[in-house]
Amino acid sequence: MKALMEKAGLALLHNMDPEAAHGMSIRALKAGLAASPGSITSDRLRTQIAGMTLPNPIGLAAGYDKNAEALSALSQGGFGFIEVGAATPRPQPGNPRPRLFRLSEDRAAINRFGFNNEGMEVIADRLARRPRGAVIGLNLGANKDSDDRAGDFARVLARCGPLVDFATVNVSSPNTEKLRDLQGRDALAALLAGVIQTRDALATPLPVFLKIAPDLTPEDLADIAAVAQEAGIDAIIATNTTLDRDGLKSPFKGEAGGLSGQPLFDKSTRVLAQLSTLTDIPLIGVGGAGSAEQAYAKIRAGASAVQLYTALVYGGLTLVAQIARGLDQLLARDGFASVAEAVGTNKKDWL
Ligand SMILES: Cc1cc2nc3c(=O)[nH]c(=O)nc-3n(C[C@H](O)[C@H](O)[C@H](O)COP(=O)(O)O)c2cc1C
Q: Annotated catalytic, 260?
């Protein structure tokens, strides 16, 4: 019944302005109108990353529930883990609208939101009431007008870290001017040192992840892997959205911002595989995953877990359970007793 409602709901949402549709989908979730398969798990799917046990390795990527509004519903949606945010120290409106575009012909999206969010205090209040049992992380961001962007990441971590299971340093959004410069070797080393120091000072230190862009040279990637390892980062999320516009058909392809969805799949999976040759840090694969086969491909390219966002715009929340269950079958088909056994077993195809 809910699957049918979801089909009708998706058709409705696709006739709306994309940002209005996004707001409506959050309200529908809060009203209990979405698929709620509960926890999807099995001995094969249950897996560990950075000391956390996930019921399955399929996660919600950052940027969908920026303000941690729909955690109860999302935690019933079949995800193995959920990342909310990005949260910045102070609330900020983000870039002028329109700033989200649906590229239906390409099963993709372009966004230039620019970290619109209600700020860490409001988000902390919601996280304090988070559902128990779910694995929930927070994407950390910096205010656009901050004169200490590196310090912003540590501030959000200090405030919200005690309320979440992991936190992600996001220096890879293309929509805050000069943010990606923080991926440079020296800037990144300084930023991560501050963040890890803040993490270590918490009563209960939590895993800290680093999220990177797909638009990096092999030299940049090697630098980032070395700096992340040195800093003690617990996992790397590869990747954020791309500035590339190759091969798109949609009339919105010329919009500025970060491209996500199907066209990002190959590029982000190649970055993932390359990274897996450069570091032993666990990796989380994100970018264009929209089927069990694609989630499985990311795992076999080197990911210990997978996140998705844009595919949900086209497939709805029922996709999550389909992907998790399909992944279980693919692992079984190929004789893997666990996700961990499959990690990186086919990276050569992506190098
Ligand atoms: C509308 C939108 C907003 C996003 N906001 C964030 C964000 O705040 N922080 C972040 O790290 N990534 C953000 N992302 C990037 C996603 O988390 C993900 O890395 C990217 O979309 C690629 O995955 P996908 O192809 O499955 O969507 C956003 C993506 C979209 C489409």
A: no
pLDDT band for position 12 (50/70/90)?
Answer: confident
Q: Which of 173, 250, 260, 268 is catalytic?
A: 173
Q: What type of residue is 170?
A: N
Q: For 109-134, how does the pLDDT look when each residue is reduced to its tens digit (9 = 90+)? A: 999 999 999 999 999 999 999 999 99
Instruction: Give the predicted TM-score (pTM) of the model.
Output: 0.98
Q: Give tens-digit pLDDT for 26-55.
A: 998 998 888 788 899 999 999 999 999 999
SS (H, E, C) the chain: CHHHHHHHHHHHHCCCCHHHHHHHHHHHHHCCCCCCCCCCCCCCCCEEECCEEECCCEEECCCCCCCCCCHHHHHCCCCCEEEEEEECCCCECCCCCCCEEEEHHHCEEEECCCCCECCHHHHHHHHCCCCCCCCEEEEECCCCCCCCHHHHHHHHHHHHHHHCCEEEEECCCCCCCCHHHHHCHHHHHHHHHHHHHHHHCCCCCCCEEEEECCCCCHHHHHHHHHHHHHHCCCEEEECCCECCCCCCCCHHHHCCCEEEEHHHHHHHHHHHHHHHHHCCCCEEEECCCCCHHHHHHHHHHCCCEEEECHHHHHHCCHHHHHHHHHHHHHHHHCCCCCHHHHCCCCHHHHC
Question: Does 63 sit in the ligand 1 pocket, CB within 6 Å?
Answer: yes
Query: What is the 241 CA–ligand 1 centroid distance (Å)?
Result: 6
User: Whose Cα sits closest to atom 29 in ligand 1?
Assistant: 63
